[in-house]
Fold:
Amino acid sequence: MTEPARAATEPLRDDIRLLGGILGDTVREQSGEQIFDLVEKARQESFAVRRSEIDREQLAAMFAGVPTAEAVPVIRAFSHFALLANLAEDLHRERRRAIHVRAGEPPQESSLAHTYGLLEEAGLDGSAVQAALRHALVVPVITAHPTETRRRTVFDTQHRITELMRYRGRTELDPREEEQVQRALRRHVLTLWDTALVRLERLRIQDEIENGLRYFDAAFLEVMPRINREARIRLRELYPGAPSLLSDPIVRPGSWIGGDRDGNPNVTGEVVTMASRRAAATAIQHYLRELLTLEQELALSARLTTVSDELVALADWDPSPKRADEPYRRALHGIRGRLTATADALLDESLDDRTDIGAERYGAPSELLRDLGVVDASLRAGGDGLIADDRLQDLREAVNTFGFHLSGLDMRQNSDVHEETIAELFAWAGVHPDYASLGEDERVRLLSDELRLRRPLVGPGAEFGEQTTKELGVLRAAARAVQNLGAGSIPNYIISMCTSVSDLLEAAVLLKEAGLLRPGSGGEAECPVNIVPLFETIEDLQQGAATMRAAFQVPVYRSLVDGKGGLQEIMLGYSDSNKDGGYLAANWALYRAELDLVAMARESGITLRLFHGRGGTVGRGGGPSYDAILAQPPGAVRGSLRLTEQGEIIAAKYAEPALATRNLESLVAATLESSLLDVEGLGDDADEAYAVLDELAAMAREAYGDLVHRTDGFVDYFRLSTPVEEIGSLNIGSRPSSRKQTSKISDLRAIPWVMAWSLSRVMLPGFYGTGTAFERWIGDDPARLGRLRELYKRWPFFRSVLSNMAQVLAKSDLGLAARYAALVPDQALRERVFGKIADEHRRTIEMYFAITETDDLLADNAALKRSVFNRFPYLEPLNHLQVELLRRYRAGDEDPLVQRGILLTMNGLATALRNSG
Structure:
């Protein structure tokens, strides 16, 4: 590390030393000198391994005979350090960004300020901008994840430590104040130490719902409305000829937690109801709290300021003589009373800050907005606009962003389940005795006919199997949510493994059965819920455009899309396509699919919105969101996108307002740039570049398939050399690790597939096959190497693919991976498979260096390079202890502490890697 770089990171090292020292003192005080000495020895020897002063085998031997009761506190110590190191790194990035701003440097890439500068330079026409952003929408969709299992206490304590460290870094403290801060830090670190990081029992879906909702109080309720307001104001300033630009909020939240039942039997109608009501309660509670505060703040006297007649009428809800001269207080009290009545009508829980005055409930958020608008207009007319611009404006923006439903809950189910459910319904109703036997054309005809009929399939007294009964219960619960909370509460119905037009129509018939889809009198239909196909495998991605062309030829389906203003959302699956064909083949299949879908949308006269099913890891489509969005093909964004946010990535991005602001801004910034500017950069060379990637992707898929699908014993190797079976058997997450009870790779969920390779430090889904493809394509031709170097410099997609791969390779460690490989008892199998992995790992790094003309995997990512340097020695003990405990567990050691230790190593490594699954 250079001296300037070292100086720039000195505050970070100071923070890590302080927090690490406090943690060390806590370990010594709470667990004794012996455990502390073991932790300290492990730390020192891990750094000695990095400096090549000792062999890794010596460190592994140190843990071989450690009693499990002593190993567990060591695991906890290094896991807590990872938690504290994350916190210190986030603060350091915040600190460096503030230094740039104070120095008057240009805004950094991925900030909205930088994007506004680019748009101003581009000199775009306002009407063209307004047309491009007609459907403007950016939705981060929160999903459940097995490694994001932190307790609320842990989450809140982390936040308190963050606030203390932020205060300490920004304030000149005298010795007494410094002592008080450090004492508070010690108290909170002690609280962390004495709080279990993960629960004893398997996480319930109800717990996952609450885990997802905590990010609203932590950040979203404050940050999303602010970004919406600032984006609207700034863009209208840039384009005064487009006064209605962003009339609707551009940023809205989404969630899958409680609505995604693809392979999760725990999602029921009761869970859907709970998820939607708990979300609504979170929104309405926020509004009640803000209204009470406004009521206390706005004690403005009618004798001292002008009050509108509308405000006076609104104040009549509260005739209190004590407040006769305070119409704003009385009006806000009345608004709070109406919102209390609304909460009582919609929810099954009593909220805080309520006031029961016998008021009429609000029928919709627009009515609440109208009353708040009366207060706002009166303040401005009386010269009190500065007051209106504060908390009241924030509240109005929040209601506009979140409504009464807070967050759109997506429904998702596998197409196979839909087929089985429709078959049972059709058989019972006498529509067809054996739907499953029909060909595609006959299915489409039958389903289309059914969608034109207003009568339901299910009559009184109908009895069905467990699956059909559950499916109908879920859909009816969704219909109740839409009826009570509005269409925004259940915006989308996603069809996993969608391969045909009939898959789309089957979902439509089920929505009709629940009363959500309504047939018209002329053969058309309308539905408040978007029907969203999810194309997941490489073959499905390749056929996606053809599937949608055929769907738009079905009149009743086309009428559904036309009823949405011609908007069709399509979800792209990053995870299964990677598991199916490997990293490079999957990324290129997605890019090609987007090109095809953009062309299809143009030909069909519809507006396309893409939903990106990205995971946390590069192997599941992860990586920097800003770069990923800019790497989309021309026409693929068009002002709107949705993308999933998963696991520990959610905490890393949205755990508190500063983080959430930075990351949400980057999503909006990239969306605006991709929609309004030419970011692909290929020009007339696009077709040639696409042809190069066609060849590379085919070669990469062949190399990947040779290992994963055609190497004898590979599944056994994977099962034995990684913790994948323990991920499934231990109490991690509410969802089973496989869609079906088989040992096939194709049936395994993408999260445990990627997570297992990440924990074992192989990171196979993020690179395998790519090095071979590059090596074979280039051969001995320097001109071909030159062509790839040119593409790396010019093409954001190609640069992003290589950059993300390099991040994966930097986090891999084949030395540690060899420790996991040693868990495979069959020596021949172990050497065969691990040898292939090691060869491809080496080859891929060599090819990366050749194409990028660098010898540093993280040359373009200083922050990650700093993180790897500072924290990776602390991961070493967690990996060694995981291997040791896996060995004991598989040898039959039934001590519950062994299982507990394995679970803790998974959690600790996921925390430290920050994107494990």
